[in-house]
Amino acid sequence: MNPHIATPPLPPGPLNEHEAKRLLRRFDIPVVEEIAVDHVDQAVSAADRLGYPVVLKGLGKSLQHKTEMGLVRLHLHTEDDVRAAAAQITKAGGEALEGLLVQPQITGQRELMAGLFRDPQFGPVVLFGLGGTLTEAIDDVTLALSPLDQKDVERMISEVHAQKLFGPFRGEQPVDRDALGRILSGVSRMAVAHPEIAEIDINPLRVTPDGRIVAVDALIVVGAPPQEPAHTPPVPAREIGALFHPQSIAFIGASNQLGKWGNMLVSNTIAGGYAGKIFLVNPKGGTMFGRPVYARVSDIPETVDLAVVTVPAAAVIDLIPDCRAKGIRYMVLISSGFAETGADGKDLEARLVEAAREAGILVLGPNTMGIANPHIRLFATGATVTPTPGHSAIVAQSGNMGSQLLGFAEQQGIGIRAFSGSGNEAMITMADYLEGLERDETTRTVLIYAEGFKNGRRFFDSARRISRQKPIVLLKGGQTQAGQKAAASHSGAMTTDSRVFDALCRQAGITRVYRPMDLLDLAAAFDSVPLPRGPRVAIMTFGGGWGVVTTDLCQYQGLTIPDLDPGIVAEIDRLLPPYWSRANPVDLVGDFNPEMTLKVLDMLMRWEGCDAVINLGIMGRRMLIERLTDAVSTADPDYPRDFLEPVGQLLIQFEKEFMARSIELMTELKKPVIGVSLRADSDYQTVMGLPGARYKGVYYQTPERAVLALAKMVAYHRYRTG
Fold it and tell me: Looking at residue 420, what is its pLDDT?
């Protein structure tokens, strides 16, 4: 069927099974041959025409889950069987029975299912997995947002865990995967052609012994066509860039009182080293921070690019005319008291947005904790944090989460491109940020903390496009069962907010994480080392146990630990004692020889059998020497410290050489090197680099963090190249 041909809308309510299958045929979905009849004599005639054995079912729009209601009789071999089954079905169906449905008995040991439901945020979602009466108990299903392209279809089929069922199975032929793909595409096209369809449940899709697929049951529920909500108008991407590069800022609501937002924001902006012009506005006038204070925005004698506003919510709308007259085009609205407070706040926020839009002012927030752009030393945030300039942009719907992420980034040496606390997103939504960062050449990685989306479908479409160019790492808050539907179908009953969002992330190439620190771990990896071209990992370790644990972690995360080539084993034999592991992981058996360690790294990086190298315990060893020196000095004050201190200096020099050589090899070979450091004190940093180098050294505190980061990078590379 041509998906572009207009189709008349369906009447509301559930279709009976026969009507549902007629609709499926129009979308190239194979269905079982069947005959609908009104009474038992017609059923017998139909069985004679189709040939025994047959299946007899009750037919009726309101008869859902027919098996549980006793309305399905299988393996009927004679006329008497049909008559007896018809009597039982008629009694069980009662007044809801509209007729009988006769089908040939389809054999086959495998049952699949396909379905559709509509998510309130993201629209139509296609579901596929194992079918039959135990569908919900088995719960081996995968989801994807419609419309599906060919890669979506192939991914859905590959994501079902029971892949063995798709191959030869107990004497039956492999499943016709092309036909399966056409079924999923057909369901997707139905969702587009009939927006009034609320749910589709094709269960089971019976796989015949010769591998064909036939829909033997189907449920379609029709509702009213979904009403397109009024979405926030898109913000041009260039406006997002301009907002983060103001040449002058007016702080409206500036304060001398310690702890007030009007004081913290000004203090942090001045102390952070912002080189642009700063103007302070407060009706009382006077002097603050050694600067003149203007009673009104209009009193400022120079142009102003950005207003940072901290006045009470009720007073904000009155600022719009002055800001407009001054030519201010951008506002960061820190003030709370808007939509987050209830109906009155929503009304106030709506009126503010209308006034701002009419005045040509773009409002970030309200209820935000501020913005930062380290590249121009702009730190207009409530938290006193000054991360280094870098290439990871952060957008957070939580001020506290944003402050924590910026603080960790500063501590761990992770460079930040820009930060926004998005607040209520009255005018600038998460999709707007994505599209603005898409155009920003300095941004290499996008980090998001989100609890909801103003326009879920637009966010999905933007993310799917952008993730082909730049990784998007996302932490989702508020994952609960609250989104579960009370639905008639298996498709609807098996959905949750979390399941849909997982599907969205996989389909859009979003790297989803579940802990705040994972956001920064992935930022460090994506920004600092090359993408691995595959899942094969070589491990070098100063401890056997670490190597074993890391091997297990790699296996859990879908990475592989290949056997060493005989040539590499022979080369390492010449470097290490004969009792070394002679395997991957390469256990350096505690033999600290700087030259040997660098040679092993070089061998593994040049080995064509691996795509990445993880090193364990090579960096940070000087901490042990420092502590040993302190312990010996405490235990024996007369022991000469100059005996141990040179060892510490040698280790410092070695760590610099190891980091430099790792960066050289990554630059040459385009393979990642990721480390786990022994150091865990206040001087520890995740990221360490060399001036002018594209890549950096990345050293996590635990093997699980290193392996997770590498596994997520492998998955992202697979998405980009798949």
Answer: 97
Structural domain 110-222, CATH architecture: 2-Layer Sandwich (3.30)
Pair 502, 641: CB distance under 8 Å: no
CB within 8 A of 178, min separation 6: which ones? none
- Residue 113 CA to residue 129 CA, distance in Å, equals 6
Instruction: Please report which residue ranges of 451-581 form alpha helices under DSSP H.
Output: 456-466, 490-493, 497-508, 516-528, 544-556, 566-573
Tokens 């996590």 correspond to 700
246 Cα distance to chain centroid: 31
Smallest CA-to-CA distance from 374 within 444, 269, 526, 286 is with 269
* CA–CA gap between residue 399 and residue 370 (Å, rounded): 8
Give the tens place of pLDDT for each residue, 236-291. Answer: 999 999 999 999 999 999 999 999 999 999 999 999 999 999 999 999 999 999 99
In whole angstroms, what is the distance from residue 226 CA to residue 124 CA?
A: 10
CATH 3.50.50.60 fits 529-721, yes or no: no
Q: How far is CA 673 from the centre of its chain?
A: 24
Express each pLDDT in 573-594 by its tens digit: 999 888 888 999 999 986 667 8
H/E element holding 20?
helix 17-26
Closest listed residue to residue 387, CA positions, set 527, 241, 237 = 527
Instruction: HSE, CB side, 13 Å, CA atoms: give it for residue 664.
Output: 9
- The pLDDT tens digits of the residues spanning 268-279 come to 999 999 999 999
